[in-house]
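hey
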């Protein structure tokens, strides 16, 4: 079960963060500013998982219930995006991450080359977490880095041999004569 939105301002934060009504406008202001970054405009998508909104009983898995992503590069088989999460870990946290597609021989789908977490249980912690997370992501957008190869190399991860090669249709070999 997922509900989607193109902008943070359209999310039902009153439902996602019950009891924190007094800081929701501040959270909206912070994220709307991030979404207005020139590198983010038109590239933002929010997915909310209402069935995961309650803190899981027992278990200490990292469970994301709201994810906002800004896609900076994508060919379908390779990508670079930044994400902001609301998640249980097992208490509520906000996280900011920079993610690239995986090109390991074993496919892990993607890797987070940067990830930070902030506790977000109280009004004050929520504001601080969103302030820090949006600042981290804004700094990454400011860096204008859009090449996942560079980030994988810096993280010691393998790259595709070349994007041209990865995206090239099979050669029509053996059709001569
Ligand atoms: Zn991998």
């Amino acid at each position: 079960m997922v509900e989607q939105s193109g902008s943070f301002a359209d999310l039902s934060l009153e439902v996602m963060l019950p009891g924190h009504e007094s800081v929701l406008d501040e959270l909206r202001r912070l994220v709307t500013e991030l979404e207005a970054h020139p590198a983010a405009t038109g590239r933002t998508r929010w997915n909310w998982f209402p069935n995961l909104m309650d803190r899981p009983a027992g278990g200490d898995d990292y469970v994301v219930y709201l994810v906002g992503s800004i896609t900076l590069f994508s060919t379908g088989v390779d990508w670079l995006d930044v994400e902001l999460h609301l998640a249980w870990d097992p208490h509520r946290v906000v996280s900011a991450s920079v993610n690239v597609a995986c090109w390991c021989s074993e496919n892990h789908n993607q890797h987070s080359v940067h990830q930070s977490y902030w506790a977000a249980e109280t009004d004050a912690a929520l504001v601080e977490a969103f302030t820090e997370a949006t600042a981290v992501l804004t700094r990454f957008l400011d860096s204008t880095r859009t090449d996942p190869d560079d980030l994988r190399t810096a993280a010691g991860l393998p790259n595709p041999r070349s994007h041209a090669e990865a995206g090239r249709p099979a050669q029509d070999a053996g059709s001569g004569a």
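Residues 102, 104, 108, 111 surround zinc ion (CB under 6 Å). The chain has a mean pLDDT of 91.
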